[in-house]
Amino acid sequence: MKIILDAGHGCSTPGKRSPDGMREYEFNRAVASLAKEMLGKYQNTEVFFAHSDERDVPLAERTSLANNQNADCYVSIHANAYGTGGWNSAGGIETYVYPSKPREALALAQKIQRNLISSTGLRDRGVKTADFHVLRETKMTAVLVECGFMTNKEEASLLRTPLYRKRCAQAIVKAIAEQYGLRKNDKIKQYKVQVAFPEKQLAEKLAGNLKKDGFNATIIE
Description:
Residues 63-177 form the MurNAc-LAA domain. This protein is of the alpha/beta class.
């Protein structure tokens, strides 16, 4: 399964920052990176980024990348804003789908919204519709999530924290896994250490210590 994660905007996008200077992309990118790492623990998944740290990738380029990859799912990650640049009381989380409400996209959006509200405790602004480019021009299931308001002083403080970013990533990944029935990898990579001794007694002593610490140890002559 191919998943596209899109951290909205870019590091230098004009105006996309909190009243005290936090760039929206800083939050978006962190959540996308965490989500990619988490999705890597599931079977048969490939995760691609539509964004770049080097520039604000044009929307048409983002959706073309997703379409060319024949992706199954596109999730655009954002922090919200309201007003003319100052602090205000608008707050909460909302998730968007295209106005035609594609069945799979709506189901995924509902799962993301539910999981985010459960994990963050913020106000539930619901699943909404919008004619956003990334929802309109993608050929696959696509949703856009607003993970809190950077123009709300309390929520902006949360958006800065590693814990909140991790919770948002976990909620998004959990929803994707639920929607598509993803299963975690059950094979844990094993690393081996080989040590040689001139005397068997020394080998037996080390093997015994390793076993006491819970490791499997085998002596080969």
